[in-house]
Amino acid sequence: MLQKMKQRTAHPYRDLDVIDARGPRFNQATVGVLALVSFATGWWPLLALLAAQLAVGLVFGRKYCLPCLVYFELVQPRFGEGPLEDARPPRFANIIGAVVLGAASLAHVIGLSTIGWALGLLVAGLALLAAVTGICIGCELYRLSAHRRGIRSHRLDEVELSELGVAPDGDMVVQFTHPLCTDCRTLEKRLRSEGRRVVTVDVSKRPELARKYGVALVPTAVAVSAGGRVTARLAG
Asked: Which residues, 6+ apart, have CB-to-CB distance to 15 below 8 Å?
């Protein structure tokens, strides 16, 4: 177990920009199963407890999220760390889950049980879908909204190469990355294997550039001309 613990590249409670991709799926499985138990037993307050637990974890951190604690303290040490991903999409999915479960609980309180159970089963179905297949609807909604925000802001139409410390001497790829992000490393390796010149921007060290260019998730990569003009969006 100790050997497995030493293999962690991201601390679960301090490196909050990224998360072990298996962690959200474990959390989604827990929420989905318990929401089904609530429906099967007819005990709707369990939906309220799930909503409260999600809200507590979102506000106070992973240490106060019980499924997260079980995963990081019992499951991950036994099976090792999974791929690391941007933590923002699953966090957004948790926000949606907390809101819908809260609405389901409120519906039960005011006597609209049919609506309450429908919302509870919706959360259960989507959570179990994500846990089993990895298809997280809330995460995809975050990515879609992030992409649309980037398009509307036009912040990636041009990159000022001078502030990246790069000479404007040819086409290149500017990749916004995080040192612990598994997908970021995979993308960079693929781009370099294609013979592309890659300039990386570590968002953990240059958050002001992530804000300036509207980078809502990593990896984000754009093809850039010698003058800094963005010619194509490759990722993100």
From this structure: 180
